[in-house]
Amino acid sequence: MLKIGVADTTFARVDMARYVIEVLENHLPNAEIIRYTVPGIKDLPIAAKKLIDEYKCDIVITLGWVGASNIDKLSYLAASIGLIMVQLLTNKHVIDVTVHEDEAKDEEELLEIAIDRAKKHALNLIRLITGGREALTPYAGKGLRQGRPDVGPIKE
Amino acid sequence: MLKIGVADTTFARVDMARYVIEVLENHLPNAEIIRYTVPGIKDLPIAAKKLIDEYKCDIVITLGWVGASNIDKLSYLAASIGLIMVQLLTNKHVIDVTVHEDEAKDEEELLEIAIDRAKKHALNLIRLITGGREALTPYAGKGLRQGRPDVGPIKE
Amino acid sequence: MLKIGVADTTFARVDMARYVIEVLENHLPNAEIIRYTVPGIKDLPIAAKKLIDEYKCDIVITLGWVGASNIDKLSYLAASIGLIMVQLLTNKHVIDVTVHEDEAKDEEELLEIAIDRAKKHALNLIRLITGGREALTPYAGKGLRQGRPDVGPIKE
Amino acid sequence: MLKIGVADTTFARVDMARYVIEVLENHLPNAEIIRYTVPGIKDLPIAAKKLIDEYKCDIVITLGWVGASNIDKLSYLAASIGLIMVQLLTNKHVIDVTVHEDEAKDEEELLEIAIDRAKKHALNLIRLITGGREALTPYAGKGLRQGRPDVGPIKE
Amino acid sequence: MLKIGVADTTFARVDMARYVIEVLENHLPNAEIIRYTVPGIKDLPIAAKKLIDEYKCDIVITLGWVGASNIDKLSYLAASIGLIMVQLLTNKHVIDVTVHEDEAKDEEELLEIAIDRAKKHALNLIRLITGGREALTPYAGKGLRQGRPDVGPIKE
């Protein structure tokens, strides 16, 4: 049985995991979903690592939320490097969903971004874990975006 | 018996460990608390690693203090990456409390931030180590803050 | 038989893999090309790692696309560090093709850069994997550029 | 017998090792001091690693010097991450003394900073290696500074 | 017999390896020099790693060239971290020569910097590999520079 880890934070201002789990349950009703909640983005790498090592997840999705300050961006960088390390140490995908507070002009837009990004990346996760390395190839170079409408490919 | 590491620095201007230990002793009277004090934030990763490897701590909390200059921020980034590496190497949580001198308008506010952040993260540590991966899930996406009042979730 | 990994993203706005594969098939008709498509640049390191570890590729080329914002640049940095780690962990080359949206004045120029860079780096890959460590030595210090015309060496 | 590594650079403009060795010899007359000089700050991590692995040092102090430009700061960041990695790989402390050329208004002040920082961190090293994890605890949160007068704790 | 690796790039605008090899051949006529040319700076870490692991080099010198843009600087940072990792994984020195295009006011000066830096670091390599950890100690804190005239120590 497929095991899917969902790691999220109490720092986030949107319960993105709810939307991710909804998508996962719709498309993979037999998968086991294992959730891990931590305080903030810098705790996500260890949560992802434990979901893979201790809970035997086949793939993980992390749901991070980042403030607008320069310090927040450095934390984002450290967390991003950590999440890549987790993948290299375990040879599993960790799909990294991150919302930055300075991406949107107001809370309403931020909420839309968070929900859209979480759902679309849940679909990415499903494609990768069920379809493998070429499941996303029909969309390669197509300018897909999560959190925003797709921009599409540049016309050749 | 639970062993909890507390790593702090002589660079900090507030004895945050005192507040952390107070919270830990109130909630986990039977836990053993093992303290490790180092000069500055870049020494925290090795202190955390030793607390786990040599002192057999089940979890660690680090209490860092960062100056306002660009150089300080780079040190913060290096230390943050290091603390994440410690966690990935040991599969243990290291709860990272950091106070930045440019977060507050004066010393009084900085003191309040330091104490509040230390106490709240001590509670996070307790929840994670006693309740496990879903102990914080009721607060996921709730916009919790340490050092400041919670901002709360965005209304959906 | 030579196995060559091609990792690309759905975020990219140009299907660079198409141009890479064209070059590879022309020059190495007997090589097996194994493609891996992921959502974005931060997913490329694990794709490259899996292409080497699981699909036994002898060398990999990654095709990244990076937005213009500061956040995008931090993601680029994390991905770059990750791609270097992959190489150090596997002792294989991962040729890293990256296009930045702020490199060009308009989409037309961006398209030209992407195609030129992808093709030229495909040739670099071929030289390295078939000719070894000195295959590129005749061009050392010659100011070669991918995505732009070569600038040439400084006249001595 | 205690073995202490001292790693320094030819790039530095002050022979900080002289002051470090003076302090070490006064306080630990029986310790063996092993010196390693490299060109610049990015060579310090391997010097520290070799001092621990090949020369069996129990602890190392590195004496770095960093220019004022943005490039220099990136080198500082890379070196800092490297020095933390050394510690995590060896489970030994590496006390990192760094002087930045833009810290002072003139050479005289820079010299004072370098000497003060080197001496004070030599004392930190001595306390850590002879007194262990709580040797510095009486100074935790006390706002100690190296290179400058202590700023002291914030009044509670 | 001593084996010395020389890794360089086709991106560079000066054939720095030529000057390095000249110095090496003059001072170490019996050493074997093994060259490895790659496209750009981010490929240098794997070249250095392979020179050590596969070609059994005792020490490596890398010759990097970095453009003037912010993106180039991030690539420099990633490469620098990678080169430090190579050293920590192999316990060998990798002497890192890097020229930044924004260091000089014109091409002529850039050429001078590149040649001077390459030659001086070749001498550093020779001293380290033949004289060991204290070969450079007479120059510690002496304000040596590569690519520029030495600035000398601050007068005490």
CATH architecture of chain A: 3-Layer(aba) Sandwich
CATH level 4 superfamily of chain A = Lumazine/riboflavin synthase
The biggest beta sheet of chain A, please? 4 strands, parallel
- Tell me the distance between the termini of chain A: 43 Å
- Low-pLDDT segments, ≥5 res of chain A: none
Radius of gyration of chain A: 15 Å
Described by its quaternary structure, the protein is homopentamer
User: What is the CATH top level name of chain A?
Assistant: Alpha Beta
- Structural class from helices and strands of chain A? alpha/beta
Please work out how many helical segments of chain A DSSP would assign: 4
In the residues of chain A, how many domains can be counted? Answer: 1
Write out the strand line-up for the largest beta sheet of chain A, numbering strands in chain order. Answer: 2-1-3-4
Number of strands of chain A: 4
Question: Which features would summarize this protein structure in a list?
Answer:
homopentamer, 44% helix, 4 helices, 156 residues, alpha/beta, 4 strands, Rossmann fold
Summarize the structure.
Chain A has one domain (3-139): Lumazine/riboflavin synthase (Rossmann fold, 3-Layer(aba) Sandwich). Chain A is 44% helix and 19% strand.
